[in-house]
Amino acid sequence: MTNYLQKNGKFELIQLPYNADALAPVISAETIGFHYGKHLQAYVNNLNNLLPGSGFEGLSLEEIVAKSEGGIFNNAGQILNHNLYFTQFKAPAKENVPTGKIADAINAQFGSFDAFKAEFEKKGATLFGSGWVWLSSDKDGKLVITQETNAGNPLTKGLNPLLTFDVWEHAYYIDFQNRRPDYLTSLWQIINWNEINNRL
Fold first, then answer.
1. Contact present, 4 and 79 (Cβ < 8 Å)
2. Domains of the chain
């Protein structure tokens, strides 16, 4: 996983690897504007304001998430979660299936990509309130699907996060309103499996 480092004592908003309208119609430019441009920027600003005197100055984002609690954890966790979320996407493709190592691992563990998708989407649809559904790998390379509430990230459980779907309402309400399951199903069209392989 990429280590996100402070620059001159501050974290910066990541640069998206695509244009704001590149993920439409799955994720609209309007959603990117609010979700990335306002929500994520607010978490970055909040964390930077909390860092001075905290003892976390100079640490990577991952180190802060692993060691902190309270407001620092909430904002650092949300930055890390969103960084992993936004950098896993590419332009939509209807027949977008895993390739390489992650495809082999999914097939070996879940039997098929369709079976994996069904389990992953169910975890996302049934998570109560706000949070994230994750695919991670453990220390033995086994794939694990977890639900994390609020700012939770599986690295706090010793897992390596690979892929995530954001189920906070601000992630999908502009484009899907209350239809969270439709949002979850649509996201497979924009997953960049090369990026997921790089995280494995």
1. yes
2. 29-86 (1.10.287.990), 100-199 (3.55.40.20)
Report helix, strand or coil for 144. strand
Instruction: Residue 181: count other Cβ atoms within 10 Å of its Cβ.
Output: 14
- What's residue 23's pLDDT? 97
| Site of tokens 């899907």 | 176
pLDDT at residue number 20: 96
What are the DSSP calls for 99-119, one per residue? -HHHHHHHHHHHSSHHHHHHH
Helix or strand (DSSP H, E) at 74? helix 70-86
The candidate with the shortest Cα–Cα distance to 123, out of 81, 165, 172, is 165
Distance separating alpha carbons of residues 69 and 182, to the nearest angstrom: 33
Query: What pLDDT is attached to residue 185?
Result: 96
Q: Which residues of the chain have pLDDT under 70?
A: 1-2
Residue 162, SS3 per DSSP = strand
pLDDT at 80: 96
Q: Per DSSP, what are the bridge partners of residue 161? A: 136
Cβ atoms within 10 A of the Cβ of 58, count? 10
- What pLDDT, on the 0 to 100 scale, is given for residue 70? 95
Within 10 Å of residue 93's Cβ, how many Cβ atoms?
Answer: 11
